[in-house]
């Protein structure tokens, strides 16, 4: 701040996705009026903005919505509140003293003071380095979520012949999406003996489009110089040892990774704060965490319910200290 004083908020919510917006609005409903949402993207909505498929809201709203529609149900509530929003702004650091360090194109570098903080930073996908997949390092190996953004928001097709590693929900949904856009999905390769995603996505995204799901299989080689040109998958036994002679070779130009999600809670751990994964509280009174930053949820409806609890808990904490 130019005058050397820190701006003060009753609540700062880090993350403007479905969890962050729901937490902020719940706190506002409980009487907080000085609330700020910090979002690193240039608009609110988080990952839901690229999830254009239906299937959201069945639990929370009792109707089927797309991801952007679900997000809009909450975004449209904000203009009637006093909740402030800073988009295109990164939260760089939080402290046990309730300081939030942010940096943005318009905001510059600021240190904000809060009476309470809700972490709603979501999760990230496991990249190739975390999976230990052997082979060369050509282009064309990307996460399923990155492909989803390319296709649904940026208007780019990442490839024409696809192999998907892992049967998480994003991968299943992208198997259908890539097929609808004219690509050929050769197989979904899953190391577990059962699918990793929801049964409805296995049925609607794979079975309905005759896309093979290879359970108890692993990718043993990715080949290609500048671009992926082959993927080799092999069957594994109950000890995850490759069974010789079971190799399947796929001529492809793209590999999508859908092998798990990791909560984005590095700001919490860097501050020396521990998380109780059974509830929204942390080891520091007044700092709460919810949504996929706490643990990965199957559906966004449950993210919202948990975020409501975090927002209410933050409001109650601030009122007790007032």
How is this structure best described in words?
By secondary structure, this protein is an alpha/beta fold. The protein folds into two domains: 8-122 and 264-321, FAD/NAD(P)-binding domain, CATH 3.50.50; 126-257, 3-Layer(bba) Sandwich (FAD/NAD(P)-binding domain). Helices cover 26% and strands 27% of the residues. It has eight helices and 21 strands. The strands form six sheets. It has a five-stranded parallel sheet, covered by helices on one side. Strands 12-19-13-14-15 form a five-stranded parallel sheet. Strand 4 and strand 5 (65-66) form a beta hairpin. Helix 5 (169-180) runs parallel beside helix 6 (199-206). It is elongated, with a radius of gyration of 21 Å. The model has no long low-confidence stretch (mean pLDDT 95).
Instruction: Give me the CATH superfamily of the largest domain.
Output: FAD/NAD(P)-binding domain
Give the tally of structural domains: 2
CATH fold-level assignment of the largest domain: FAD/NAD(P)-binding domain
Separation, N- and C-terminal Cα atoms:
25 Å
Strand order of the largest sheet: 6-3-2-10-21
CATH architecture verdict of the largest domain: 3-Layer(bba) Sandwich
Overall geometry = elongated
Return the CATH class of the largest domain. Answer: Alpha Beta
Q: Please summarize the sheet with the most strands.
A: 5 strands, parallel
> pLDDT under 50 segments (min length 5)?
none
The Cα radius of gyration reads: 21 Å
**Residue-averaged pLDDT:** 95
Structural class: alpha/beta
How would you spell out the order of helices and strands? EEHEEEHEEEEEEHEHEHEHEEEEEEHEH
Number of helices: 8
Q: Classify the beta-strand content into a percent band.
A: 25-35%
Give the helix level as a range of percent. 25-40%
The total count of strands amounts to 21
